[in-house]
Design brief:
heterodimer, A: about 170 residues, alpha/beta, Pyruvate-ferredoxin Oxidoreductase, domain 3, six-stranded mixed β-sheet, 6 helices, B: alpha/beta, Rossmann fold, 2 domains, eight-stranded mixed β-sheet, five-stranded mixed β-sheet, globular
Chain lengths: ~170, ~375
């Protein structure tokens, strides 16, 4: 197994944290993982990209070369990153598709689920993780849940667990 | 197995080596070193201080070391430029300390969040005058841990500043690391004076030793520290004899111990068509290139520097001669720095080629492969 993933969106959406959670879960499963990121000087806003490679073998090169999955949570991220080929493209429902036909992508209401259903836009990253792992089966559900609960702020465990479950169901 | 960033692993290594004082000023992409040090040092009885700028961060690090602690600071290119004056002072006054430089794209403030290996020559020659340099470059998160421990050992053993030349690639990379419960590595501590305080000569090298013993300030040994040429008492002198003796001592403590300081990794150098010399984060690109090269019918060897300074020139020359290597390709994320050392060391014994990049991006395996193909086709 060797999977290369890109999680893209806006700075502040917690996509680097999502990448860290996923990489941590992979280690718990006994796999190898590397996580890196590229971002601008801004603390909020701007385009943000987290990359994760999960493999059963050694990981030499740390950046994604052949994208197995690209996640886009914002229009800016889609416009910037979705031009490159990806085996699986998961985009938020609010994004206007410029380079793809609807049947070429998985379009699901990630932001809506966080913002409206859970009334907490900040958990969009965890909803996304659930949605991604439901389709890719990258890590075991137990490890992912454990990893989420280890990395999220104290007092938000219940909310994040719910976000992960809702993500799985999208 | 823990998921740690290269920057965080540096701090874990430093603490394992006995670092108990950190002074610095945050700068991308090194900030996590300071953050992790601020978090971890109080847990082990150490002190963290954020200073008003990078110069003060280096000065306080030197102060911490003089006070008897193992001390460290961390920065990136723009801050490293500010620190070099005090690095020269530490070299002259023989103060053991460790500087982590997480290299980002320059020149000047450049691209703060993008990687580079552009400070390699600055690590060697950044401060004025003749002084020795020791610099180590890790190419994984685990290695960042071990290299930082070694940096402290060298600093303590040779009483000199040691630079860990990280790059943004490894500094910001998270990967699994097994932190040992019990360290399987020697930890070197500076020797303390055993004589009576009134007999103490701060810069007198005892017979059979490499450097003088070093007391902590406040331990009863009164002595003078200066960046001026000084004699065995530590007080300034204009004596040419003393100047020659001191400067030769500074240089020889590294030059005479190159074998102890150099470390590198060799992969498949026997019968290789091209030997790729690399270090730090770029080494990850080079290892990934090896599979592509094999598929393309090129036998590729790897010479990966772990110690960048002192440069292992004799060893490189011997390996090239022994294996009759025709071409050496240097892969580094700059416009050509270590390639000059390779060229100088080989003195025409092999063709020397370079691949680099200065646009803030990293090198990709397919780019290195293309260069290998060019080198092979023209050779």
């Amino acid at each position: 197994m060797h999977k290369e993933l890109k999680l893209t969106g806006s700075g502040g959406q917690g996509l680097i944290l999502a990448g860290v959670i996923l990489a941590d879960a992979a280690l718990m499963d006994g796999k190898n993982a590397v996580q890196s990121q590229s971002y601008g000087p801004e603390a909020r806003g701007g385009a943000s990209k987290a990359e994760v490679i999960i493999a059963t073998g050694e990981i030499d090169f740390i950046k994604v070369q052949n994208t197995d999955m690209l996640l886009c949570l914002t229009q800016t991220a889609y416009d910037r990153y979705a031009k490159d080929a990806a085996a699986l493209l998961i985009v938020d429902a609010d994004i206007e598709l410029k380079y793809h036909k609807p049947e070429e992508v998985v379009q699901i209401p990630i932001i809506y689920t966080a913002q409206v259903t859970l009334k907490r836009p900040m958990v969009a990253n965890i909803v996304a993780l659930g949605a991604v792992n439901a389709r890719m089966n990258l890590v075991s559900k137990e490890s992912l849940k454990k990893s989420v609960l280890t990395r999220v702020p104290k007092g938000t465990e219940e909310l994040n667990e719910k976000a992960l479950e809702l993500g799985y169901s999208l | 197995m823990r998921l740690l960033m290269g920057n965080e692993a540096c701090v874990e290594g430093a603490i394992a080596a006995g670092m108990r004082f950190f002074a610095g000023y945050p700068i991308t992409p090194s900030t996590e070193v300071a953050e992790w040090a601020a978090l971890r040092l109080p847990e082990v009885g150490g002190k963290f201080i954020q200073m008003e700028d990078e110069i003060a961060g280096m000065a306080a690090t030197i102060g911490g070391a003089i006070a008897g602690k193992k001390a460290m600071t961390a920065t990136s290119g723009p801050g490293f430029s500010l620190k070099v004056e005090n690095i020269g002072y530490a070299a002259m006054a023989e103060i053991p300390c460790v500087i982590i430089n997480v290299m980002r794209s320059g020149p000047s403030t450049g691209l703060p969040t993008s990687p580079s290996q552009g400070d390699v020559m600055q690590a060697r020659w950044g401060s004025h005058g003749d002084y020795p340099a020791i610099a180590l470059a890790p190419s994984s998160v685990s290695e960042a841990y071990y290299v930082t421990i070694k940096a402290f050992n060298y600093a303590e053993k040779y009483r000199t500043p040691v630079i860990v030349l990280m790059d943004e690639i490894i500094g910001h990379l998270r990967e699994g690391i097994e932190l040992p419960e019990k360290l399987d590595m020697e930890i070197i501590d500076r020797k303390r004076p055993t004589c009576a305080p009134e007999d103490f000569k701060a810069y007198k090298v005892p017979e059979g030793e490499i450097v003088p013993p070093m007391p902590g300030f406040g331990e009863g040994y009164r002595y003078h520290i200066t960046g001026l040429i000084h004699d065995e008492t530590g007080f300034p002198t204009n004596s040419m004899e003393a100047a020659g003796k001191l400067c030769s001592h500074l240089m020889s403590k590294v030059e005479d111990n190159v074998k102890d300081l150099i470390e590198f990794e060799l992969i498949d150098v026997t019968d290789c068509d091209v030997l790729v010399l690399t270090y730090g984060g770029t080494a990850r690109t080079v290892s990934a290139t090896k599979k592509l090269a094999e598929a393309a019918g090129i036998k590729m060897g790897i010479f990966r520097l772990i110690t960048v300074w002192p440069f292992p020139e004799d060893e490189l020359r011997e390996i090239v001669a022994k294996h009759n290597i025709k071409h050496v390709l240097v892969a580094e994320l700059n416009h050509g720095q270590i390639v000059r050392e390779v060229d100088r060391a080989l003195k025409g014994a092999a063709g020397v080629h370079h691949i680099g990049k200065i646009n803030g991006d990293i090198l990709y395996p397919k780019e290195v492969l293309q260069k290998l193909q060019e080198v092979k086709a023209n050779g």
